[in-house]
Design a protein that fits this description.
The chain is α/β, with parallel strands linked by helices. It is built from 19 helices and 13 strands. Strands 1, 2, 3, 6, 12 and 13 form a six-stranded mixed sheet that branches. Helix 10 crosses helix 11 and helix 18 packs antiparallel against helix 19.
Length: about 425
């Protein structure tokens, strides 16, 4: 029986029996929430549910955990469902921050701009989460949590090489990495097609992967700023032996780092757990620092991954869904989630909540300079074809950067024009 039909039955029966009513006469509604597997621990979800239902006496939560694999079509189907079928679907959905644009088209998500500005302090949200949740000036995705790359390094190898403190600028980073290339130590492992890391260098220079003008998106890897970002990547990558024709997962850089001969990798802090599992001898030897910026004034730009919360337009529990989003994204439960899961909170003003964890603190510092991929639904086609990877390999093998950047930009433009 759908929720809508159940509500009608309860209303009719309540005159005789009080069906679905609390003693005070308030009808309880069920808000269904889709959350992704491993985004939050079972303990966190239990604590949140107990507190939310205690403070919202007219709402029952139905939390349903989803798998990331195949989630796109499942969300699309839920957003397009009509009438009774829609009433049985989710009222709040966790989605990847860069996925929001593909779900907005056709008016399928609730516009949360008013609540975001008036009630939720959107001016303090991490830009890498907030920006992809926007389309044409309206906020549809509400930032929930973030994770981004930092530099994971060997404290002992830094000390042996005379590098007394983590570098804070790009030039200091290059200099330190050169010092670390000593004996059997590799200064850095950076795969040739780690395009998310490249994106940070491009953004740091003021460039973009693609730009919109007059409603049309065009690739922009061939801009002077983007070319400077690629040149820095080339210089840094050359200080290690990472493969120029593969990304950071082929082979997994955690496996390479665990061999014990590499001083640095660029990764999310959680990779340290996998490294130590593979090589227990590295326990206590790993440290973290933000990706250095052009100057010491602020860290380098980084790609911000994470999740946003959205509300389907076809929900029949709009007010309850908004209350759930407000609670999950609010300071109390957002900082609780960050501490529990070692995430970055959704606001720059909440960074102090994770200051005690070295890896998360480094991540939070970088998240303040976080960015996301271009906010167009067609960007998924770019990542599927990914001319950026091929461009990087060609440049690292000695091809003319400007020529190859222009070719890659043209391919990005074609892919963004397929809609």
């Amino acid at each position: 029986m759908t929720r809508r039909l159940l509500a009608l039955v309860c209303v009719s029966a309540s005159l005789a029996s009080g069906c679905g009513l609390l003693p005070g006469g308030t009808e309880r509604q069920t808000v269904t929430v889709w959350l992704m597997k491993d985004s939050a621990s079972r303990d966190f979800l239990d604590r949140f549910t107990e507190d939310f239902e205690r403070t919202h006496t007219d709402i029952d939560l139905d939390l349903r955990i989803q798998e990331w694999t195949g989630i796109g079509p499942k969300v699309q189907a839920a957003l397009e469902a009509k009438d009774e079928k829609a009433a049985a679907g989710p009222d709040v959905i966790e989605v990847g921050n860069t996925q929001v644009p593909q779900y907005v088209d056709g008016g399928r998500l609730v516009d949360l701009t008013l609540e975001s500005v008036r009630d939720w302090g959107s001016r303090d949200w991490l830009p890498g989460l907030a920006e992809p949740g926007q389309l044409r000036g309206h906020q549809y995705g509400v930032p929930w949590y973030a994770a981004n790359r930092v530099v994971v390094y060997r404290k002992d190898l830094f000390a042996e090489a005379g590098v007394d403190a983590p570098p804070r600028t790009r030039e200091e980073w290059l200099s330190a990495t050169e010092k670390l290339n000593r004996g059997g130590t590799e200064g850095i492992y950076l795969a040739g097609q780690d395009w998310y890391t490249l994106a940070g260098f491009i953004w740091d220079e003021g460039g973009e992967l693609a730009e919109e003008a007059g409603g049309t998106w065009q690739g922009s890897l061939d801009s002077p700023e983007a070319l400077r970002g690629m040149d820095f990547y080339r210089r840094l990558q050359a200080l290690g032996s990472g493969p120029v024709d593969a990304d950071e997962e082929h082979p997994p850089q955690a496996d390479e780092f665990a061999r014990g001969e590499i001083a640095q990798i660029v990764a999310v802090p959680g990779v340290a757990r996998a490294v130590v599992q593979r090589n227990p001898g590295l326990e206590g030897k790993l440290g973290f620092f933000p990706v250095p910026g052009r100057t010491a004034a602020r860290p380098g730009a980084v790609f911000t991954g994470g999740s946003d919360l959205v509300i389907p337009e076809n929900t029949d529990q709009r007010e309850g869904a908004i209350a759930v989003v407000e609670a999950l994204a609010g300071a109390k439960w957002n900082t609780d989630l960050a501490r529990t899961m070692n995430y970055v909170p959704n606001k720059t003003t909440l960074a102090g909540a994770v200051a005690g964890e070295e890896g998360v603190a480094a991540m939070a510092a970088g998240a303040a300079e976080g960015r996301a991929t271009p906010t167009t639904p067609e960007w998924a086609a770019v990542e599927a074809d990914n001319p950026i990877k091929a461009y990087m390999t060609k440049v690292l093998r000695g091809a003319d950067a400007e020529t190859e950047a222009r070719r890659a930009s043209d391919r990005i433009t074609d892919l963004l024009s397929l809609a």
